[in-house]
Amino acid sequence: MMENRRKYVLDDQIGYLLRMVTQRHLAIFNDEIPEVTTTQFAVIARLEELGPLSQNLLGRETAMDAATVKGVVDRLARQGLVATTPDPEDRRRLTVTLTPEGAALYGSRVATAFEISDKTLAPLSGAERTVLIELLTKLA
Amino acid sequence: MMENRRKYVLDDQIGYLLRMVTQRHLAIFNDEIPEVTTTQFAVIARLEELGPLSQNLLGRETAMDAATVKGVVDRLARQGLVATTPDPEDRRRLTVTLTPEGAALYGSRVATAFEISDKTLAPLSGAERTVLIELLTKLA
DNA sequence: CCAAACTGATTTGCATACAAACAATAATGT
DNA sequence: ACATTATTGTTTGTATGCAAATCAGTTTGG
């Protein structure tokens, strides 16, 4: 008698693994860069890379929906790391700009951000890291 | 003149990739099993696997902290999928039990849960899936 | 035995995350 | 021109997720 039905082991499910690895990564990030969160840093990095963006476009560039990006931008603005200005061309738009303080934070923390990625991947060899990034990219 | 400093490309960072893959997975789950969330299903699956557990232990078994698991259990209890009873052995403890309704939901949805994992991994070959799960397990 | 340390649960506060509904504005087709 | 449609941003509601503080109950060391 063969038991053919696979057992649903939570720990083997992709969703559960993603959640746990994310938890570990967030903890490392929070230790190393307590001033901002991962999402806030993502916004700053994109603004540094692409220059001023409308709030909606910024959301698309950082994989956040409109409601989420609004909250993130609000909190960054409260910290003085970004500024928002109305767009005279399109009165619906809100342009989000990196402030000098935001740019300074980015400049002083990029190296640490790389270290955070390294620490997260520390249990893997170099080759394994490359494979993992490739596979996750296919799933993103 | 070699530019030696690596550029911080958000899309290559493990944290950003994890967030995007998780988003895709959550969307698939929500499509297929709208009655409960991924975390709620994780709680149900663990209770099915291990039987009644104290709320704190349940949290450890599902990688949720005490505050988070309380919310999840409360919402599951409101839906009648789990029940909580005080533990006479240790008056601090709250025992969480799967109700018949919860067990029925699990039974009727496990197969779909497998399909969800499959759909999430659909862009990968069988060999790639195995590798990915192995690598993520090392990072969890 | 009993103070100190520990554990279980709750609460508050903050930060994502997404769905749904909405208002204002812009673009489009006829 | 103008009604339809689309886009941008805001708001509300629900659900994680974690830190920190607190309270109640249990265990342990001297």
In brief, what are we looking at here?
The structure is a homodimer. Chain A is mainly α and about 140 residues long.
Give short descriptive properties of this protein.
mainly alpha, DNA-binding, globular, homodimer, 3 strands, Arc Repressor Mutant, subunit A
How many DSSP helices of chain A?
Answer: 6
CATH class of chain A: Mainly Alpha
**Largest inter-chain contact set:** A-B, 48 and 48 residues
Overall radius of gyration of chain A = 19 Å
**Which fold name fills CATH's third level, the topology of chain A?**
Arc Repressor Mutant, subunit A
Q: State the total count of DSSP E strands of chain A.
A: 3
Largest sheet of chain A: 3 strands, antiparallel
**Average pLDDT rating of chain A:** 95
Oligomer: homodimer
Measured distance between first and last alpha carbons of chain A = 41 Å
Secondary-structure blueprint of this entry?
The structure is a homodimer of 140-residue chains.
Chain A (H helix, E strand, L loop, with lengths): L13 H19 L5 H13 L2 E2 H7 L4 H13 L3 E5 L7 E5 L1 H21 L5 H14 L1
Antiparallel strand pairs in A: 1-3, 2-3
Helix pairs in contact in A: 1-5, 3-4
Chain B binds a DNA duplex (30 and 30 nucleotides) through helix 1, helix 2, helix 3 and helix 4.
Describe what this molecule looks like in 3D.
The first copy, chain A, is 62% helix and 9% strand. Chain A has 140 residues and is mainly alpha-helical. Chain A has one domain (10-139): Orthogonal Bundle (Arc Repressor Mutant, subunit A). A three-stranded antiparallel β-sheet of chain A has the order 1-3-2. In chain A, strand 2 (82-86) and strand 3 (94-98) form a beta hairpin. The longest helix of chain A is centred in the last third of the chain and has 21 residues, at 100-120. At the A-B interface, helix 1, helix 2, helix 5 and helix 6 of A face helix 1, helix 2, helix 5 and helix 6 of B. Chain B binds a DNA duplex (30 and 30 nucleotides) through residues 23, 26-27, 30, 37-40, 54-57, 64-68, 70-72, 75, 90-94.
